[in-house]
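INFO worker-7 received task bundle
INFO bundle size: 2
INFO processing item 0
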Amino acid sequence: MSFVIFVAPWFSENATRFIAAVQTVPGVRLAVISQEGQERLAPAQRERLAAHWRVDDVFDSNQLVRAAESLSHHMGPIHRLFAAYEQLQVPVAEARERLGVEGMSAETANNFRDKSRMKTLFREAGVPCARHLLASDEAALWAFAEEVGYPLVVKPPAGAGAQATFRVDGAEALREALNVSRPSPDQPLLVEEFITGDEHSFETISVGGRAVWHSLTHYYPTPLDALRNPWIQWCLVLPREVDSPHYDDIRTAARRALEVLGMDTGLTHMEWFRRRDGSLAISEVAARPPGAQITTLVSRAHDIDFLSAWARVMVRGEFDAPQRRYAAGAAFLRGQGTGRVRALHGLEQAQRELGHLVVDVRLPEVGQTPTGSYEGEGWVVLRHPETKVVEEGLLRLISLIRVELG
């Protein structure tokens, strides 16, 4: 039996899904380190844990080391220590190194986590990406804006999921962004050119430093555009034609990017753009499972449990590349107006027209507080062997369903 430790700040819905996935790996005794008490877990899942250790701050590698050492004293040598939350990748890697546990190094984790460092490595290696600057004061930021021109993107160097990210279209918009977050030597801001084009994701499973599987997803529109326009019902499409020659350039660039960053074994989530002239640019890469229901889309497109497959990669370093059988897509249902969810319109018509395509659904509930994110208050996943059918189905879905706030 292998003793494995999973780290999570809280027992959120996603965290419990990840824990459940690791629990499916045969021959594993699983312990969890968290800031919350294990009573927050469902009894059935709690009973399947070999151990639990609560700490005050899971982002403190010193506390992680002390907790892991205590668990190891009772459970034996640690086979794996890992996390799925992006902000945990560096402290967990630091703890691994101090404990002598196999896994991604702290240097590599920093390559993925620090987006300014990442882009510097990309440009030095010839990997296509946006021009950027890590600004520690406003003067440097204004100088970059004058040199590169507008629009620009301003964000923290270790952000995730478009958090605290601003598109600035001119000097006035830049002043407004600086009123929200000002750069300093202790808290610099990453500023980069805004790339115009279509945004996509690219997921890769790597084993022993070699990419053994990939997937990609189209965003309609970009997450940043969805954040800027609350009325937009954001959609994702995972095309069936993942091995099409149309994607040869991103497959090549993605493999080179992962090599530059030092990827060994695990799952990565890359965001990239196809410019209007056909060229590409990699935005950033995260060494973790993707959000926005992408793991669900991958599961449905291949008829597998993708999270369980990810867990086996992390624990055993094993992955059997599946065959893609379908295209899949998700529509995120966002409330229109202000206040709480008041009503859901168009659902019956959508069910009549598109019910045969629906494989997963979470509808907004009356009285629900809006999330304020581009993922909205609910979502619907469609699946079909033909990509065009999924694309057209999503467009029809978001034209029919309206979430009323009030």
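INFO item 0 finished
INFO processing item 1
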Amino acid sequence: MLKPRAGIQAVPAYHPPLAGRRGLRFDFNENTVGCAPRVLARLQQLGPEDLARYPEREPVETLLAEHFGIAPEELLLTNGVDEAIHLLCQTYLAPGDEALIVVPTYSMYRIYIMAAGAEVVSVQAGKNFSFPLEDVRNRISEKTRFIVIANPNNPTGTVVPADQLLSIAHSAPFAALLVDEAYFEFYGQTLYRSCRELPNLFVARTFSKVYGLAGLRVGLLIGPGDQMQTIRRVSSPYNVNAVALACLSEAIAGQDYIEQYVSEVLESRKRLEQTLRDLAIHFWPSQANFVLMRIGPSKQEAAAFVEQMRRRGMLVRDRSGDPGCEGCVRITLGPRSHADRLLAALNEVSEQLGLTPGARR
């Protein structure tokens, strides 16, 4: 009988809890209010012929290359950052190779690596989820062909200094290094300008977060021109749909909307972190649009907190299953009005569950 190859059978299933998401969406790090009005206006202009034609990716890639100040051959539009990860794994990994990740981090890295038949080498983050530079260097071997680092990292919100990332690229010239900058806009520091200097460095971006286009599934990969030429051979010429391509120019043009949204999210993040200090709830300072906090020592406390927030119309994410995140919950931030409702519910649930200092006494 027909059977998948052994390596695929070992790949863990990823089941995001997307069903029944009614309430304020503080659970998946999405833009909590949606895309810019000019993007919606462009959507309304689309007609039957726009949907009947195969999508043409290259003109939009040229536009984005101009936006980033790079050559078009150094950029590839992808079906979300997920496809960028998948393409790199397909291009550089073979059975018997090793790929290195620092955990906890985005779950799909492991899945795409395993699907390519390679072995996942997991390095545990340091104290307070600090980046374990020396441990990473020590785990690089002659088998290492791919290293992926989220910066800022998900679910911790921690970041890696640019000099440390560049040192890893230099330490493993035979491995592709992907720096996943999905949350760049909330951090403001990037490495994509170094891709011309380092032939093994790639940077990924997404339009799913701050741009509010998660439903359109569009991201991009930036890398050295000669390497990107090879990666294009693996990519479908029609990987990004026509609707997404039609909206990207308006999304890029609406930087005033992006700047305003980011400003409000950063303010909300500051307010949440101060509230957690007041409640004596442990959290990790974040450079992304979310904050990871520890509700209790085990999954039970985290699950109870998530459920009570859900009953108040607030969707937050239990991250107890991630390495080192037992009893942790991640909360996405939105604009001021959303933060007002979030913090009111947080105070109420914390007191109900005995998380506040007064309740503990």
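INFO item 1 finished
INFO post-check item 1: Residues 20-30+256-355 form a domain with the Aspartate Aminotransferase, domain 1 fold (CATH 3.90.1150.10).
INFO post-check item 1: The chain has two domains: 20-30+256-355, 37-253.
INFO worker-7 idle
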